[in-house]
Design goal:
With 158 residues, the chain is of the alpha+beta class. Helices cover 19% and strands 32% of the residues. Bound molecules: nickel (II) ion.
Length: 158
């Protein structure tokens, strides 16, 4: 596995619609491993394939409960609302207020291309919405209320 370069806002690849994955291949397995490595290295909670320049419907998420790999994810149900700060590895050091559903149910394919579903609330619901948006070329800045603001990294405090 290897780290991949994270594309930053302004890169046209982040504004394109991604294609569904039709079959698992060694290259896609490698891509998923690299996406996880890249997300952990950057200390993110989620990463979508277009953020590493690949226009495929694949996202990885880890909100601290272990890795979740979603292929061709689709949000099938949402409930409630949450408003809070959101950031993106493609816009490093910045965050902004975004309102998302507080509950999300999504269906997707696993790495074995088996159908699965997940329900999430709070941060997981937010992460699923954010990453699925990437697959349609949508950045969180399109949903931001007010201005983006700088975020301090923990190691820079004090
Ligand atoms: Ni993002």
């Amino acid at each position: 596995m290897a780290l991949r370069k994270i594309r930053e806002a302004g890169d046209p690849v982040l504004e394109k619609k991604c294609r569904p994955v039709e079959e698992m291949t060694p290259r896609i397995r490698e891509l998923i491993g690299d996406m996880l490595d890249t997300m952990y290295e950057a200390m993110g909670v989620g990463l979508a394939a277009p953020q590493v320049g690949i226009l495929k419907r694949i996202v990885v998420i880890d909100i601290g409960e272990g890795p979740l790999v979603m292929i061709n994810p689709q949000i099938v149900k949402t409930e409630g609302e949450q408003t809070g700060d959101e950031g993106c590895l493609s816009i490093p050091g910045m965050a902004g207020q975004v309102t998302r559903p507080n509950y999300v149910k999504a269906v997707y394919l696993t790495e074995e291309m088996e159908e699965a579903e997940i329900e999430g609330t709070e941060l997981l619901a937010r992460a699923i919405c954010h990453e699925c948006d990437h697959l349609d070329g949508i950045m969180y800045t399109q949903h931001v209320e007010g201005e983006l603001h700088r975020v301090e990294y923990e190691e820079e405090e004090e």
